[in-house]
């Protein structure tokens, strides 16, 4: 199997569109397995769509090195090529003086050659200084090649390429001009995750534009030649050991409003003896199940539809009251409050809009609010349906959830904000709602505890 990692010199370098295009091009004739560094749902949905295989997340803040290697080996089964997309700049991470949470940490853990995407707008020789700096900052990182982005013309390309190849000793395998067509395509994809169905035609059209443009300016053969070869990792531990029998049913909210799930979640549930049943809070009735998971997403974009499906909201409220375990993250937490309010002016809204939600947690959700993007670290108490103990995760939201002062919380955070004053994991009966997103492998014990609770409650 061949393998490589694509990263950028900064956020906005163009690595996402370049990675998408290269994965799409290679998937025409090869089995391409994609990975995404960091706790992210959007890019993995695109990469999975173009490759036809689940994209898996690798994050060195939440996962140990062994867990990263195990997930990587498991995902690469039967693949011809593995492509890892980095997050932000190569060395950006959770801390200033360590590489925890960074793309660099994953590159070292997996011994991957690195393609550095450099935004070369308005620079030529200075591009070489950037590459040289990235090389010397951590000599254990193997920068194998460079792709230049935002190139103005032939002279611009020639000067930057000559300088990089002379001073840095690595090839420039692509020079992509600044193209409005590609910018528009990425803007239309925006932050909306890929979902099969009616939106697929538009997604495919946008990806086709990006792939065609980048395919003209990146040497695909040179890209493949820079990949390293790796033997099958049969010696790696399988992070998912699947039992023959699955005796628990877990309903998972999965539709246009709720779709922020890591691919490993479904494997963790199966490995815990659970089958999952997808359902739509927008369109369906609540299926019979022993427990429910309501992930993140964009419920604020479907307020009217969620409010209209009052049978669903009443059913969720009823099963919660009966003690059926429910685990909700971020958008799921918002859905479980009394109401959600969108302020006037948000996304061009002329007036305020409010809608009734499930009413499990006494309180309300308001959007927009302060943008929160952070790793979280904390401890879950004994009353949590996911069990007690330490955990690490991530929070990312523009909403504010205000709950009654007497609300019980299962999580106490030592890093991150949570719902209120470093408290997260609102708790009532066996329902837990949090802003914290958990990586399923890093928190495998918590998800197994949840499945065990569902099994016990059913019995």
Describe it for me?
It is a single chain. With 459 residues, the chain is α/β, with parallel strands linked by helices. It has 14 helices and 24 strands. The chain has two domains: 2-229, Rossmann fold (3-Layer(aba) Sandwich), CATH 3.40.50.300; 248-458, 3-Layer(aba) Sandwich (Rossmann fold). The chain is 33% helix and 29% strand. The strands form four sheets. It has a ten-stranded mixed β-sheet with strand order 11-9-12-14-23-22-21-18-19-24. Strands 1, 2, 3, 4, 5, 6, 7 and 8 form an eight-stranded mixed β-sheet that branches. The chain has a four-stranded mixed β-sheet with strand order 16-15-17-20. The longest helix has 18 residues, at 200-217. It starts with a strand and ends with a helix. The model has no long low-confidence stretch (mean pLDDT 93).
């Amino acid at each position: 199997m061949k393998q490589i990692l694509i990263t950028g010199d900064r956020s906005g370098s163009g690595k996402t569109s370049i990675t998408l295009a290269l994965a799409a091009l290679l998937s025409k004739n090869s089995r391409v397995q994609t990975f995404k560094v960091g706790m992210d749902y959007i890019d993995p949905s695109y990469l999975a769509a173009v490759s036809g295989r689940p994209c898996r997340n690798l994050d060195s803040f939440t996962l140990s090195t062994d867990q990263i290697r195990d997930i990587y080996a498991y995902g690469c089964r039967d693949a011809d090529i593995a492509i890892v997309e980095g997050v932000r700049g190569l060395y950006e991470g959770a801390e200033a003086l360590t590489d925890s949470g960074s793309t660099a940490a994953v590159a070292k853990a997996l011994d991957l050659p690195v393609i550095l995407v450099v935004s070369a707008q308005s620079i030529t020789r200075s591009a070489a200084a950037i590459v040289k700096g990235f090389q010397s900052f951590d000599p254990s990182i193997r920068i194998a090649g460079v792709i230049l982005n935002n190139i103005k013309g032939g002279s611009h390309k020639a000067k930057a390429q000559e300088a990089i190849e002379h001073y840095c000793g690595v090839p420039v395998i692509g020079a992509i001009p600044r193209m409005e067509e590609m910018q528009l395509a990425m803007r239309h994809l925006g932050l909306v995750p890929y979902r099969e169905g009616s939106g697929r035609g538009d997604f495919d059209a946008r990806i086709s534009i990006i792939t065609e443009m980048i395919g003209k300016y990146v040497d695909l053969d040179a890209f493949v030649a820079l990949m390293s070869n790796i033997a099958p990792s049969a010696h790696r531990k399988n992070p998912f050991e699947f039992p023959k029998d699955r005796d628990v049913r877990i309903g998972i909210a999965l539709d246009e409003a709720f779709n922020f799930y890591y691919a490993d979640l479904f494997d963790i549930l199966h490995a815990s003896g659970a089958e999952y049943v997808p359902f739509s809070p927008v369109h369906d009735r609540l299926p019979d199940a022993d427990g429910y998971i309501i992930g993140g997403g964009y419920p604020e974009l479907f307020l009217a539809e969620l409010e209209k499906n009052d049978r669903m909201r009443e059913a969720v409220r009823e099963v919660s009251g009966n003690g059926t375990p429910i685990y909700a993250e971020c958008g799921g937490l918002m859905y479980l409050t009394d109401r959600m309010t969108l302020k006037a002016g948000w996304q061009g809204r002329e007036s305020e809009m409010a809608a009734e939600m499930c009413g499990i947690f006494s309180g309300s959700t308001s959007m927009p609010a302060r943008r929160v993007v952070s790793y979280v670290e904390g401890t879950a108490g004994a009353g949590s349906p996911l069990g007690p103990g330490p955990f690490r995760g991530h929070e990312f939201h523009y909403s504010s959830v205000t709950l009654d002062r007497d609300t019980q919380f299962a999580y106490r955070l030592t890093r991150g904000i949570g719902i209120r004053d470093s408290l997260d994991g609102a708790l009532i009966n066996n329902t837990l709602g949090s802003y914290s997103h958990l990586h399923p492998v890093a928190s495998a014990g918590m998800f197994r505890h949840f499945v065990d609770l569902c099994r016990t409650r059913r019995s």
